[in-house]
From TrEMBL:
GO terms for molecular function: citrate synthase activity. PANTHER family: CITRATE SYNTHASE, CITRATE SYNTHASE, PEROXISOMAL. The active site is at residues 257, 308. This is Citrate synthase. GO terms for cellular component: cytosol. It comes from Heyndrickxia shackletonii.
């Protein structure tokens, strides 16, 4: 047996959903650059779930299905008030809330293909409503009901603030959703696939995936990037802050990647958005600090920024609370998790690798009074 630390380079599944080859990311063969510039998030959801772009009627049907399923069970909203709401991280709240959604879905354990697709619609539709409702309830505000006339990106921003968002915010948020939707066999997607490969249900798979995304080495990095920018505070402080971290062998959040070597193709889109939005909001220092950090880390560590680096200043400019950055990642990535869950069910085999044992050799049981 050979052991590969962190499963680096191990090909553990086949998939038709997305690929990373020579640092190029594609969803079903469409380059991410093309999708980021042109596609709505709803089109991308359809693409990931049906492996083709929708025509007008198919897109209208999906949008209708999402709009019809956004409302949350009242029990789930009521349960927020039983959480330690002032201290709980919204990602932990989301993990718990998604799990509890399964309790109120009569089809939760129905394993037929059509029922699983219906659950995918429900989960995709309800995720933004959960994040927005939790964000409001913890501030003592009432949740805002979704509006059927708004698209996915606009609806999220509307449910979060209660105000119809500006076009520029909707465009930026839509692009961020498209960029985060899927990413081959990343840790959270792998987690979802491992979970449902036991023939467990969709809610369990997504709950497990949220748990994996939460960690700072994965989706949780975007919040940590903002924490770093806030700590640094000004462009003048970047140099000493980053050099001290590097000298202490600490990781700089938002840099490095297991698969990309030359760079993450999503980062340039977020970088451009960050430049534009931070100027518009009168906080260009967040973009300026970010580019200075990028200069140092790329030249000294040869590590390019990943998707989490510039998304931090983009979300900050959209007025989103910093601890909602990772839940927002989940609102997008659930589309990919669901695509992979459906793909896993369609040709399932239990995922069960081996471990190389490194503990003591054979031992003889010693009764407790003799130990
Ligand atoms: C959506 C996403 O999940 S994108 C990734 C988000 N995560 C982050 O941004 C967290 C910061 N980055 C990292 O921790 C890593 O680069 C990961 C987790 C993304 C990839 O990890 P791995 O492929 O396991 O690389 P690993 O952690 O082994 O790093 C290899 C070397 O590069 C260094 N390195 C990797 N990333 C960084 C970083 N961000 N800052 C400083 N050094 C780094 C490591 O210290 C290690 O150095 P060493 O060989 O001298 O010990
Ligand atoms: O693929 C990975 O390892 C992490 C990542 O960039 C993502 O999930 O978007």
């Amino acid at each position: 047996m050979t052991t590969t630390r962190g499963l680096e380079g191990v090909v553990a599944a086949t998939t038709s959903i997305s690929s990373i080859i020579d640092d190029t990311l594609t969803y079903v063969g469409y380059n991410i650059d093309d999708l980021a510039e042109n596609a709505s998030f709803e089109e991308v959801i359809y693409l990931l779930w049906h492996l083709k772009l929708p025509n007008k009627a198919e897109l209208a049907e999906l949008k209708q299905e999402l709009a019809d399923n956004m409302e949350l069970p009242k029990e789930v909203i009521a349960s927020f008030k039983t959480y330690p709401i002032q201290s709980v991280h919204p990602m932990a709240a989301l993990r718990t809330a998604v799990s509890s959604l399964g309790l109120y879905d009569e089809e939760a354990d129905v394993m037929e293909e059509a029922a699983n697709y219906r659950k995918a619609i429900r989960l995709q539709a309800k995720m933004p409503a959960l994040v927005a409702a939790f964000a409001r309830v913890r501030k003592g505000l009432e949740p805002v009901a979704p509006r059927k006339d708004l698209g996915f990106a606009a609806n999220f921003l509307y449910m979060l603030t209660g105000n119809e968002p500006e076009e520029i915010a909707v465009e930026a948020f839509n692009k961020a959703l498209v960029l985060h939707a899927d990413h081959e066999l990343n840790a959270s997607t792998f987690t979802a696939r491992v979970c449902v490969a036991t023939l467990s249900d969709v809610y369990s798979g997504v709950t497990a995936a949220i748990g994996a995304l939460k960690g700072p080495l994965h989706g949780g990095a975007n919040e940590q990037v903002m924490k770093m920018l806030t700590e640094i505070g000004s462009v003048e402080n970047v140099d000493s802050y980053i050099h001290e971290k590097l000298a202490n062998k600490e990781k700089i959040m938002g840099f490095g990647h297991r698969v990309y070597r030359q760079g993450d193709p999503r980062a340039k889109h977020l970088k451009a958005m960050s430049e534009k939005l931070t100027k518009l909001t009168g906080e260009p220092q967040y973009y300026e600090m970010s580019t200075k950090i990028e200069d140092i880390v790329t030249s000294e560590k040869h590590l390019p920024p990943n998707v989490d680096f510039y998304s931090a200043s983009v979300y900050h400019s959209l007025g989103i609370d910093h601890d909602l950055f990772t839940p927002i990642f989940a609102v997008s990535r659930v589309s990919g998790w669901l695509a992979h869950i459906l793909e896993q069910y369609s040709d399932n085999r239990l995922i069960r690798p081996r471990a190389e044992y490194t503990g003591p050799g054979m031992q003889t049981y010693v009764p407790i009074e003799n130990r």
